[in-house]
């Protein structure tokens, strides 16, 4: 094996890849040798990110909640840049409301973006991966997948669903050369985190107080973990959720 941590020859589709964790993952993938396709709703953000990433990156403005267009998107991208060998289901929306203030419509919006859209894209890329007996599906889960966090009921339900999806898919497709895993970022410095902690310094102190490494993570921390999981170095790893949290999930 030349470099077990290399993604040379891989083509990765990253949803929500224009900013935050998605951009951190994309940046690390490019450094590891992969070609990148950034997918999201904001063309200007995607274009800026692709320019920063260089010639290995391209982008496709697309709303992943248009579920009936998932297959045509994948076919269009395959014709343009080649078959997708890595799918990172990273796109999502955040909703901070108490359970009683969360309406069924609110709840459904979060599930549609995180869960149903991710399933639709996964279903669209799997046939080619299975045919080639090579591929990786990665879900960006969360600490909200692992323990209770107040005021994020819909988000927690969506991110928890990723764990069941990853495990069940892994059992179905790993025998065909397709690995399926999830990463669970802790509190990572990003626009989403800043929004979640806005005007709540006590919550920030509480988070750091139970994080053994005593710092918030970075998008690069998540990107490096994602690169490992999708690389040959993790060739016998499937169906897991990997916390990337500075020890928060085991801290007290």
Q: How would you describe this protein?
A:
The chain has 252 residues and is an alpha/beta fold. It has one domain (11-243): NAD(P)-binding Rossmann-like Domain (Rossmann fold, 3-Layer(aba) Sandwich). The protein is built from eight helices and seven strands. The protein has helices spanning 20-31, 43-53, 70-81, 104-132, 153-173, 191-196, 201-209, 219-230, and strands spanning 11-15, 35-40, 57-61, 86-89, 135-140, 178-185, 241-244. The chain has a seven-stranded parallel β-sheet, sandwiched between helices. Strand 1 (11-15), helix 1 and strand 2 (35-40) form a beta-alpha-beta unit. Helix 1 packs across helix 8 and helix 4 runs parallel beside helix 5.
For the biggest β-sheet, the strand order reads 3-2-1-4-5-6-7
Which range does the strand content fall in? 15-25%
The number of E-state strands comes to 7
Termini separation comes to: 40 Å
User: Judging by the overall fold, what is the CATH architecture?
Assistant: 3-Layer(aba) Sandwich
Stated plainly, the CATH topology is called: Rossmann fold
Reported for the largest beta sheet, the result is: 7 strands, parallel
User: What structural category do the secondary elements indicate?
Assistant: alpha/beta
Instruction: Please report the number of helical segments.
Output: 8
Number of domains: 1
Indicate the topology.
Blueprint: E1 11-15, H1 20-31, E2 35-40, H2 43-53, E3 57-61, H3 70-81, E4 86-89, H4 104-132, E5 135-140, H5 153-173, E6 178-185, H6 191-196, H7 201-209, H8 219-230, E7 241-244
Parallel strand pairs: 1-2, 1-4, 2-3, 4-5, 5-6, 6-7
């Amino acid at each position: 094996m030349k470099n077990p941590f290399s993604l040379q020859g891989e083509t990765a589709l990253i949803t929500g890849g224009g900013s935050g964790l998605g951009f951190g993952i994309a940046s690390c993938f490019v450094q590891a040798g992969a070609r990148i396709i950034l997918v999201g709703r904001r063309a200007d953000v995607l274009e800026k990110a692709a320019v920063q990433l260089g010639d290995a990156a391209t982008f496709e403005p697309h709303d992943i909640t248009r579920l009936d267009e998932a297959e045509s998107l994948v076919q269009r991208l395959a014709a343009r840049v080649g078959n997708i060998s890595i799918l990172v289901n990273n796109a999502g929306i955040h909703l901070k409301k108490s359970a009683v203030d969360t309406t069924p419509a609110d709840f459904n919006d979060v599930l549609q973006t995180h869960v149903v859209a991710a399933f639709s894209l996964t279903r669209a890329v799997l046939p080619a991966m299975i045919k080639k007996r090579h591929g990786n599906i990665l879900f960006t889960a969360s600490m909200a997948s692992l323990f209770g966090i107040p005021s994020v009921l819909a988000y927690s339900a969506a991110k928890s669903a990723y764990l069941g999806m990853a495990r069940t898919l892994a059992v179905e497709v790993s025998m065909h050369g397709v690995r399926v895993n999830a990463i669970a970022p802790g509190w990572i410095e990003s626009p989403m985190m800043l929004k979640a902690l806005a005007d709540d310094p006590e919550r920030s102190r509480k988070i750091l107080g139970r994080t053994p490494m005593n710092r918030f993570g970075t998008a690069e921390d998540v990107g490096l973990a994602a690169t490992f999981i999708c690389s040959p170095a993790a060739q016998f790893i499937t169906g897991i959720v990997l916390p990337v949290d500075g020890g928060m999930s085991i801290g007290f």
